[in-house]
Amino acid sequence: MAAEQLKNIFLSASVPLEERDLKYFDTADIIAIRDAVIALTQTVLPQYRLIWGGHPSITPLINYVMEKFDLNIQAHVTIYQSLFFEKFFPADNNKFENIIFTENLNDRDASVANMRKQMFTENDFVAGVFIGGMEGIEDEFKLLREYHPNALLLPIASTGAATQIVYDTILPEGMKNERLRKDYGFMSLFQELLIERI
Fold first, then answer.
1. Which DSSP letter does residue 31 get?
2. What is the pLDDT of residues 93-106, one digit of tens each?
3. Helix locations, the chain, DSSP H
4. Measured CA angle at 8 (ends 132, 161), to 5 deg
5. What is the pLDDT of residues 135-174, one digit of tens each?
């Protein structure tokens, strides 16, 4: 399948840090976050393109899956990375060919907002998957709905943290599904609630 024909799936995910905010850390299921990211990557690649803002706790997991399954599919993954965080880029960034670096505006919040705006305006997304995370999950959930109102929304609430908050407080009632809260069989979950619906 030609790369330009691929449907884009947005991933918003991170592992919460205890020192950042306990409201995210206290409910986070770190193992579930890891397992969900790995299962999502295995499920969507190589049939779809996965796009995410390169968080250092997530990019190595996606690289792990690509190496483990010998997926030479660089055109199927795209990372957006603000140059504000250049000193903290994970070593795994070097394993990806499609990294879009966005401008360092010398302010963390402004640089992240600029990166997100570029990511959401340069791509058409058919779905967004949200896993674990902190305040960025809440921000990116709102932005995806704003820029891509027809995109399928899948906050995996069983991973806890900000995604559980999004599920409980922002996700419209009509989009809620108890499997998002209780089903840890992530491969089948993504196959049935994501792949079969896009």
1. H
2. 888 999 999 999 99
3. 22-25, 30-44, 59-68, 108-122, 135-147, 161-169, 178-182, 186-193
4. 5
5. 999 999 999 999 999 999 999 999 999 999 999 999 999 9
Q: Check if the beta carbon of residue 14 is closer than 8 Å to that of residue 137.
A: yes
Asked if residues 44 and 195 have their Cβ atoms less than 8 Å apart, the reply is yes
> What is the pTM assigned to this prediction?
0.94
Phi, psi of 78 (to 5 degrees): -135, 130
pLDDT band at 54 (very low <50, low <70, confident <90, very high): confident
Does residue 46 have a cis peptide bond before it, meaning omega lies within 30 degrees of 0?
A: yes
For residue 11, the cross-strand partners are 52, 129
For helices 186-193 and 30-44, angle between their N-to-C axes, nearest 10 degrees: 50
